[in-house]
Amino acid sequence: MSSNVKMNEGRLEITHILSVPCADAFTWWSQQEKVQQWSGCAEATRCEVDMDFRVGGAFRQTMDIAGRGTFTFHGVYDEIVEPERISWRAFFGPVTTRVVVQFIAIGDRTRVVLTQTGFPDERSLKTIQQGTEESLRALDAILTRAATHTAPPVITEVVE
User: Fold this and answer.
1) What is the pLDDT of residues 69-87, one digit of tens each?
2) pLDDT band at residue 146, thresholds of 50, 70 and 90?
């Protein structure tokens, strides 16, 4: 699914619909082994995630990006309200941004609203926007494959 993106004055907001209920969507953001499967830009040839998912806990993400080298950022979780919201501070070298991810139920799907503030310039804002959207597309692909493999068989003919 595509994302709705708003950017202005150092603020990024991405709204994205996931094809799973909120509790399931939340696990894809809160469990290290799941986050590692989808987080990272499309050009990442390797992405390693370490996380201590609790308020005050830290995380670190390291990506090898084709033709550009290794990129690492880290952060600290400030708020966790399962399955509704996660917020953290993300440290990109000298730049600190604040991220809030909200999980909103819409039937058996989830509207994810990611808001990130504190970007010092347009270039950094666009770089993070691109990588975040690529990550969300990767998550969509995983969820689509999982739904395909767990869907009940379709009965097309009844034999009596």
Assistant:
1) 999 999 999 999 999 999 9
2) confident
Give 110's strand partners: 18, 105
Q: What is the DSSP string of 12-80?
A: EEEEEEESS-HHHHHHHHH-HHHHHHH-S-TTEEEEEEEE--STT-EEEEEEEETTTEEEEEEEEEEEE
Contact 22, 83 (CB under 8 A): yes
For each of the domains in the chain, give its residue range(s) and CATH number, in order of start.
3-150 (3.30.530.20)
41 and 134 Cβ atoms separated by less than 8 Å: yes
- Tens-place pLDDT, residues 1-32: 679 999 999 999 999 999 999 999 999 999 99
Q: Is the pTM of this model over 0.85?
A: yes
What one-letter code names the amino acid at 31? Q
Produce one character per residue of 19-29: b if its CB has 16 or more CB atoms within 10 Å, e if not. bbbbebbbebb
Q: Please name the residue that has the structure tokens 């499967």.
A: 37
Q: Please name which of 67, 109, 111, 103 lies closest in space to residue 84, comparing C-alpha atoms.
A: 103
